[in-house]
DNA sequence: TTAATAGTTGAATGAGTATTCAATTAATTG
DNA sequence: CAATTAATTGAATACTCATTCAACTATTAA
C-alpha cells in the first residue's frame, strides 16, 4: 500500500467519502458537490483528481470490489488450522454480522451498472471469478485430506456462491433479524449438504 | 383491467415509457423530461398525472413487480397437465430466454432502492413471498401425488429461489451465452437434486 | 346552448448538476 | 534564496432537473 504522495492519499480520501455519502444518499444521487461538502473542500479539487464523474464512479467500483475481496480474504486467513478452514469459511459466509461489514445498497447500485457498462461488467465478473476460484482450491485441498468427496470442485464452488448470493438477495428484503437469520441458517445447512459435510 | 377513462390509459402509457427509457438510459438517470420526450408530450403533462417524481418511481416499481409476477404466473399456467407442472416450471425458471422477458438492469436498480426506502422493501418482499408461496403449494401437491417426497416444502421453495436468484445474479456478469447456459444447466440439476426429482 | 370539468400546452422558476479556468497558496527542488 | 511544480481555491460556465402556473382546448353534463 504505497500511498506515498499527497495525491494518492487525497484520491483515496475522495473515494472513501464517495462511498460513505453513497451509503446515506444512494449511489446515483451522490454528486461531486455532495462529496466535496462532506470533505469540506471545493468541488473543483475533486475534479482536479478525477477528471470526470465517470472516472470517479470507476474508482468507487474498484474500491467496493477490493473491499469485498478483502473481507473474503480475511475470512480465509482467520481460520486456526487448515482442517477448520472450510467449515469456518462457510459459517462466516452465511452469517449476517459478517455481511454487515459491507454496504449492500451501494453494492447493488454498482451492480446495476453492469448492464449498461461493459467495463463494470468485466470488473465484477473478475472479482467474483476470483472468489469462486479460491473456494474451489480450498475444496480441492479438503478433497486431498479426505475431509470431503467433491467430484467437481469448480461446479460446487459455484453452487455455494449461487446459494450465498441468492440468500442475501432475498433476506435484504426482510424486515426482522429473526427472519433473516432463519434463512441464513437454512442456506448454511444446504451448503453443508452440498459439500457433503 | 379497467383502464376505462383516458386518465388511466395515460398513466399506464407514462409508466411504460418510463420503463422503456430506463432500460436504455438507466433508472436513476431517467428524468421526467426524457420520458416526456419519448412520448412527445410536455413534461408538465406527466407531472399532471404523477404529482411527484417519487410517485412516478413508485408506479414503475409496481409495474416491474407486476410484470415479474405475471411472467411466473404465465409459466404456471402453461403446463399441460399437473404432473408435468413442476419439471416444466423448473425448466423454464432456469432458462435464459425466459429471463430475457424482463429487464434485469431496471430490476436491480429498483432493488437497490430497497435499502433506502422501506415502502419499496415491503413491495419487493411481498412479491417474492408470493412467488415462494406459489412454489411451496405446488410442492405440496406433488407430495400428495407421490411425485416427490418433500419434508419441508416452504424451506425447499425458498432454497430453489435462492439458487435461482443467485444464479442469475452471477450469469448477468458473464459475457458469453455459452457460459451463462452452462451455469443455468448446473443450477437446474442442483434444483432437481434438491427436489429429489 | 351553456356551464363545468378534464386534458393539454408552453413558458418560467430556482435549485442542482458536471465541468472549466484563472488566480492563489503551499511544497519541493536546484 | 529562487524557481518550479503541485495543491487548492472560488467564481463562472452551460445544462438538466423537478415542479409550478396560467392559459388554452377539448370533452362532458345540464
From TrEMBL, chains A, B:
GO molecular function, one term: DNA binding
Residues in HTH tetR-type domain copies: 8-68
DNA-binding region coordinates: 31-50
Keywords assigned: DNA-binding, Repressor, Transcription, Transcription regulation
PROSITE patterns the UniProt entry points to: HTH_TETR_2 (PS50977)
General function of this protein: Represses transcription of the icaADBC operon necessary for biofilm production.
Record's subunit section: Homodimer.
Protein's name in the database: Biofilm operon icaADBC HTH-type negative transcriptional regulator IcaR
Organism this protein belongs to: Anditalea andensis
